[in-house]
Write a structure and sequence with these properties.
The chain is built from three helices and no strands. It has 79 residues and is an all-alpha fold. It is globular. 19% of the residues are buried.
């Protein structure tokens, strides 16, 4: 049961990962630090809920990880 929920969370993360280009010359959702933080918070809360953990803590950790991902080598830079 937990494997299915975890796989559903990974599928949601993969779906959100497709939002990197807006097509109008503006940065996409995952190209700004705020966008990455919000996306991380949503995914963190979803994973915490799927694993029966505290959703607020999951959202906080997800937002922290998403916001901190802007300076990591190998990832697209933030605008």
């Amino acid at each position: 049961m937990r494997i299915q929920l975890l796989l559903a969370a990974v599928a949601m993360a993969g779906t959100v990962a497709g939002c990197t280009q807006s097509g109008y010359g503006q940065p996409g959702v995952l190209q700004t630090q705020g966008g990455r933080a919000v996306t991380g918070a949503v995914i963190g809360a979803a994973i915490a809920d799927a694993t029966d953990e505290n959703m607020v803590a999951g959202a906080s950790l997800g937002a922290l990880a998403g916001g901190a991902s802007c300076g990591l080598p190998g990832l697209p830079r933030c605008y």
